[in-house]
Fold:
Amino acid sequence: MSAPDPGAARATAWVAHLRAGGTTPWAAWTGTTDGPAPRVLPGAQQLELLRRLNEVGPVPDDLAERVLAASAAGRGRPDLELVGSRPPSEFGPPPVDPADLPAEELLRVAALLLAEDLASADAGPGGDPGADDLRRLAADAARRVRRRAAWRRPWRTRYRLVGDPWRADVLRRDLVARGRPPGGRGALVLVVADDLATMLVDLWTDRCFSTGVAVPAWGTWLDSLAGARRVARGADPAAVAARWARGVGRDRIRIVLDDRSLAELLGVDALAARPVLPAHAVELARLVSGALGLLVTPEPGRRLMREVLLPRLLEQAARTGGPPLGVPPEHHRWVHRRSLRLRDAVRAGDYPVLGQVEDLVSRPRVLAARAPAPAPAAVADERVLALAADLLLGRTGPDGTAQGHAGPDSAGPDRAGPDSAGPDRAGPDGAGPDRAGPDRARQEEQA
Structure:
């Protein structure tokens, strides 16, 4: 009988150490075990992620097992072996020290785990999708009753919200929750707009909180726009207005640049504010949406990103803060010039404007004030990874303690997922009208 390999015995003991909550790095680990070593060990990415989670706080046993069994989502290196745990091989990628892995590699694993938590939140209590379907049907029926009641009030302005997708979606959900669903005969088409830099941030954020389409990183996406002749549709109010004017007529188009004027037009006291997230929170949402797109179809994925993940990110942002997204300096000149062209196009179209058309222009001084501070990509990735670790462990309370689960001994990934209480799980009432209403209204307006 051959003697046990000392590298494999050392690696086996380190895995057991991490399962028990240990934080010793692989390079500093000297322990071993006399028992047989498994033929396959977890990858270096999974082991380092578990070690990082142990440094943040107690990791439930079920979460530790999920981390060790997870795959890395998205493009990147396959699961890597620990250096020194096996004899050298001429095949496959070289083994690594987990501490040398960039945070980007660990985020691929963390994003998949968060996506699995979101996908499990789409099921009803006890993992029964049918229970959630019943709630959704009841919410849809309530929405139709409210819509019919709203149509019986002819003095209310009928509307459709288009344009800036992130802002329009927030406004639509807010109005539906008040019993003011969009649509109806003769509805005004309200093209929501802002200065170009803000609309670009909103457009990318909206895509990061959707599933079904791969979203490039913020800088890469801006580079592609700067080299194109036209900006994307959601950031071009003149193009959106022209498209709708061909169908409904120019007299029913309004370009909205002032929330107070819009509130007066719709007959409400005030409108919901645009949710502003730190840059690292939006980047995490982009990674999670890519992984979630492998687990659910686009419409449920969009709803889970906005009704489950977004409130948790906002709660975490209120506790920890962080700089919001901004246009980097190398694009300031392009954004300013393009915003002037957008303003001129709106003027040439002669559309009614709620607010000042000059508000479409991104001023150089404002761009400079909002520009992100230069930082290495590795530092930014570490901040995203820290946020992912907090979400995996449920650390979103104001005092940094775990929220939404009973503690380390709680069972199942639902500890911070579908059975958690509070507004970050479903809607205002657990199945409120914005589970079905706003998404369906958005589909109707995009048709």
Q: What stands out?
A: Strands lie at 159-163, 188-192, 253-256, 353-354.
